[in-house]
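Nicotinamidase-related amidase, Micromonospora halophytica. Tokens?
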Amino acid sequence: MPRFREIYADTGDGGVQLGASADRWHLYEDFVHLSPHHTEGKLVRFEAELLPFVDNLDRGALVVVDMQNDFCSPGGWTQRSGLDHEACRAAIPGVQRAVEAARRHGMFVIWVYWHNRPDLRNLGAPTLYSFKHRLDQRGIGEELDLGQVLTAGSWGARMVDELQDHIDEDDIRVEKVRMSGFYGTHLDQVLRTQGIQTLFVCGVNADQCVSTTLEDAYFRDYNPVLISDATATSSPAYCKDAVVFNTKQCWGFVTTTDGFANPRPYPLKGLT
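Tokens:
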């Protein structure tokens, strides 16, 4: 049997193979190679936790989750519900830096966001309850001063003003009606048809829509990378801390906007 088809094969250069065939990684003492079968293209090394990783820039995309007025702007659902929208706004500068870095890398930028039907016919009671815990709280689709909460075409569903100039017409837009960017959307098809395997994920809320998107990416054998300083939440700080911990321990890797923007060139090696 060819070595690249074996699980836990010896790589021949001091590492151990994880997985098999084109989906394999090579684990070394001080880094992980996510694409050892790529000997052409833009191989770079990203600083990350728990370990740095090497990958081909052509296989990556930036996924920006829910940077919308209802979560991040005054007068939006988060503030009107008594939650900390200013904490969500803390992600905006990091997202700006991440988008600029993705453009320099030649990566797709994928905007994932809530765009619910005005009639709410595709939302069940559990999802509605997530946004309406009290009788006097405005839920998805209900009216606030600036329009319906997280409804397609509303002010609340619009990306925050600070990111409008960072959105290009060639970017990919994925509308969702659940927390995860994968559930009931075309995100998976887009990634597979475009040859994207590594997802650099940021946005809000870290412990809800960001974390479920990271987990669903992991379950589908994508390579999830959380950009920690471009991610925020209106929940208590320990909620984001738990997402950071679980991402680097279980689901993938954690980096920063600086780490994402400034990978180091990696020497090309022969096919292994």
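DSSP finds ten helices and 14 strands in the chain.
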